[in-house]
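FORM 7B: Structural annotation worksheet

SECTION A. Query
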Amino acid sequence: MLTKVSAHSGRRRAACREALSASACRPSPRLERNTAITYPRQNLETEIGVFDYSMTQALQTAFVQKGFKEVSAEATTTQVTLRGTVPKGKFAEAVRTAQEIAKRKIKTLLTEQ
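SECTION B. Predicted structure
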């Protein structure tokens, strides 16, 4: 059995050949559905912490009350950084004070004198 080719399809092909834009003749791209998108896994090193001013103030107040006048603290939402100097034998007490108040990871850059 012979199939009849419509005149419309022949004109369409001819128009595509003559078209200035070859993209008009290309088939549309296919969308892939149900594909899993993978994102890089975040851990404490890649997680960005936001500065926590109220926690920094609370830590500074606690250090002054305990007698650590040369210790400064910088708190973010992920960790607390301690800088400065502490008297000999008081290092653990300074870190413990920060842990009790902040309840997050403590990064110590303290030196003992």
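SECTION C. Observations
The domain at 53-112 is CATH 3.30.70.1770 (Alpha-Beta Plaits). The chain has a mean pLDDT of 79.

SECTION D. Sign-off
Analyst initials: ____
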